Structure prediction request, 397 residues.
Amino acid sequence: MDTAALKQTWSLAQSLGDEVPLFFYSHLFLTHPELRSMFPVSMATQRDRLVGALGRIVSSVDELDEVTDFIQQLGRDHRRFEVIAAHYNAVGASLLATLKHFLGEGWTPEVAADWADAYGVIASVMVQAAEASEDSSPSSWPAEVTAVERRGLDVSVIQVRPDPHLPFQPGQSVAVEIPARPRLWRYLSPANAPRSDGSIEFHVQMVPGGQVSSTMVRSLHVGETVRLGAPVGQELTLDEDERHRDLTMVAGGTGLAPLRAHLERIDQEWQSTGQAPRVQLFHGARLPWSLYENRLLQNLAGRPWFTYTPVVSDDPSYPGRKGLVGDVAADTGPLHGRLALVCGSPQMVRHTVSRLRARGIAHADVRFEQFATLDEDSHAAHHHTHDPQSSRLPHGE
Prediction:
């Protein structure tokens, strides 16, 4: 399999803009009209998400060993769409038809065979993972909204209780569907460590044009039932060895959520064992009232293991640290030997990662979501992410 050719042809297809996803969806819905109901009523915000994510993942099949766990998670997560193996065949056929249409003479028999082989590998991993999970977990989790608290102008903290309990790790994300926006799924990261009562806390920030985020912040009510997908993501999770390493956390906006989940877990362990790694958290916002967890984090800073630095970029009168949160984090040492977790908007993540690596943190020790959601209003458009907005396959907002 010529993976260089896969990447080259996908790069060419990407350069053609909106015509590629338009052809893809036209082909998919004409050949398989029964699939139309699985997508949002309005496709205006769907654009290139599915085809874009497919292309990125399939053209990176040479990295499969590194992302097999993630692809398996996607397969389990896609059960919420009631996806079956035949649907993967339909999507794959439309993807290949789209590439053939736009690549023209570049769609050689060799390139066609490589794309078919690569897609088959990815789809097989997803299908097998989905089938293996059928006996042990539901396709999605209904969750009752138990509390909604508006924080400032554009953020709500939402508590839900899924039934049955939804297992997840701090740093993962789950897809959320609300009653008012059926088939519009948005990935959110739990902002808490797993709790004995199974409850989950989400931090939601309104994003201009975001149908799901705006509705959740303004209109979601206690007593409503939302639907959750299976947990996905591994870049912001910590394995057993990493849980004891000193951490530098850098968050922008509601990108704080997965990092706060780690803080809750660390604090629980510190209270029970007296042991905790040293943790620095830098939380950036444009304006001081957008530091929506400031009081809680200031209180947590009384712990001997935790240091908290709020950073404001757009208010010259702010008495604390000002500027870009990535710059402040990089200029506050020492950083040697630390593991860094970064979550925020794509621009914030790129800048912060570059600055931390330039200051000497090992390349592999700067962690961020490389396979992020394509949701436009995910964690203030972070990821999650995952470039940070790369490759999950769902029908997002």
